[in-house]
Design brief:
about 110 residues, alpha+beta, Ybab, Chain: A, three-stranded antiparallel beta sheet, rod-shaped, YbaB/EbfC DNA-binding family protein
């Protein structure tokens, strides 16, 4: 018995695949371009991180003469940890914005 081929379903699947490919490219561009600023608990260190997780800049604020290396290292550690979380949050938010309306083949 020959199988019936649903040409409309195949055409729809191809179009959805193409749309998904466009959305993936848009998402990739967005995560590399979107930058989040994160500050240490004492606000002495600022880290700029992309949604992709790449740290693009580290800024030290204020005078360091009164700081010891251990205190500064603790602040840098805290802000880098927070930057990782901020990048994850930004990725999830961008993903929801870009792919939120995308439906699967079985969804109408």
């Amino acid at each position: 018995m020959p199988r019936e081929i649903d040409e409309a379903w195949i055409d729809e699947a191809i179009e959805r695949y193409r749309r998904l490919d466009v959305l993936r490219a848009e998402f990739d561009r967005a995560v590399t371009a979107h930058v989040v600023s994160v500050h240490s608990p004492d606000d002495s260190v600022e880290v700029l991180v992309t949604a992709a997780g790449d740290i693009t800049d580290v800024r030290i604020r204020g005078n360091l003469h009164h700081r010891n290396a251990t205190e500064l290292a603790r602040e840098v550690q805290a802000v880098v940890t927070n930057a990782t979380e901020a990048a994850r949050w930004a990725r999830e938010k961008l993903h929801a914005e870009i792919f939120g309306a995308f439906r699967g083949l079985g969804e109408r």
